[in-house]
């Protein structure tokens, strides 16, 4: 089985004491690569250090996370732009709108999100979208910005079937399925069977959102197998089939060449 964890913050301090071991455990479970979305200017040095330590395995992305959009957002945005102009990244992310934690900077979040979607188009990169209590607000912007070149993923998708259909209508977008699919009241398990397998990629969002039976503990990429098993059950196919299709989807979206 060959998998790609399309969303992990393995560069975070939660892994400082055992990052290499966590990567070994992931490899033992068939994880052939990890996509690492950035948070803000404070996380960049760790992100880049990990991508250099594990080349062709930990793939870095560049972006400003919506929960880090505060009064200094213009400065943060120019740091993102500067990095994008200097070196290779695999996506613009993670970006989006989060109205769950704090609505104070909603206007700025909209502005920063739109700006980063345009950066993705400029650099020909996919976007990794974080949507929390904000599907209508995100759709409003993507409805305007979508074109034949724009691609991306709605990560840790927890929307409704109607939200999924809206995403599908864009053409170039996928949904990231993570630990929530294994939760009793997660909701997304009810609509997976209506999804096109060609639009599904898998992710852990480590260190967050551990799937059952690891729920409540720190998450890591080795746990991807629990998400794959649940998807296989819901889609009524084998885990190997889920692995091969989602890996193909991820390779296509992020233009990955795995070793
Ligand atoms: Zn994330």
What are the key terms here?
259 residues, alpha/beta, TIM Barrel, 8 helices, binds zinc ion
Q: How would you describe the overall organization of this protein?
A:
The protein contains eight helices and eight strands, in the order βαβαβαβαβαβαββαα. By secondary structure, it is α/β, with parallel strands linked by helices. It has one domain: TIM Barrel. The strands form two sheets. It has a five-stranded parallel sheet with strand order 4-5-6-7-8. The chain has a three-stranded parallel sheet with strand order 1-2-3. It is globular, with a radius of gyration of 17 Å. It starts with a strand and ends in a 5-residue tail after the last helix. The model has no long low-confidence stretch (mean pLDDT 97). Bound molecules: zinc ion. Zinc ion (ZN) binds next to loops. The site of zinc ion has 5 residues, from loops.
Helix content: 25-40%
CATH architecture tag:
Alpha-Beta Barrel
Given the structure, what is the number of helices?
A: 8
Number of structurally distinct domains: 1
The run of helices and strands is EHEHEHEHEHEHEEHH
Query: Strand order of the main beta sheet, please?
Result: 4-5-6-7-8
CATH superfamily: Metal-dependent hydrolases
| Beta-strand content estimate | 5-15%
Q: What spatial form do the alpha-carbon principal axes imply?
A: globular
What is the top-level CATH class? Alpha Beta
Unreliable residue runs: none
């Amino acid at each position: 089985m060959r998998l790609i964890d399309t969303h992990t913050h393995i560069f975070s301090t939660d892994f400082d004491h055992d990052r290499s071991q966590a990567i070994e455990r992931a490899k033992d479970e068939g994880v052939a690569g990890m996509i690492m979305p950035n948070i803000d200017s404070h996380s960049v040095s760790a992100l880049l250090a990990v991508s250099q330590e594990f080349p062709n395995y930990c793939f870095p992305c560049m972006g400003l996370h919506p929960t880090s959009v505060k009064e200094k957002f213009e400065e943060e945005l120019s740091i993102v732009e500067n990095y994008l102009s200097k070196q290779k990244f695999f996506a613009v992310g993670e970006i989006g709108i989060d109205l769950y934690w704090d609505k104070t900077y909603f206007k700025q979040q909209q502005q920063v999100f739109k700006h980063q979607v345009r950066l993705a188009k400029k650099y020909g990169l996919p976007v990794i979208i974080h949507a929390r209590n904000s599907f209508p607000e995100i759709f409003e912007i993507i409805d305007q910005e979508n074109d034949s070149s724009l691609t991306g993923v709605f990560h840790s998708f927890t929307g409704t079937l109607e939200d999924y259909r809206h995403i599908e209508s864009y053409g170039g977008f996928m949904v990231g399925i993570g630990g929530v699919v294994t939760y009793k009241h997660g909701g997304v398990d009810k609509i997976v069977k209506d999804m096109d397998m060609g639009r599904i990629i898998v992710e852990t969002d480590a260190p967050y959102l551990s799937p059952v039976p690891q729920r409540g503990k720190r998450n890591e990429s080795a746990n991807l197998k629990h998400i794959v098993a649940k998807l296989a059950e819901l889609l009524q196919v084998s885990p190997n089939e889920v692995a091969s299709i989602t890996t193909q989807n991820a390779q296509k979206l992020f233009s990955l060449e795995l070793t």
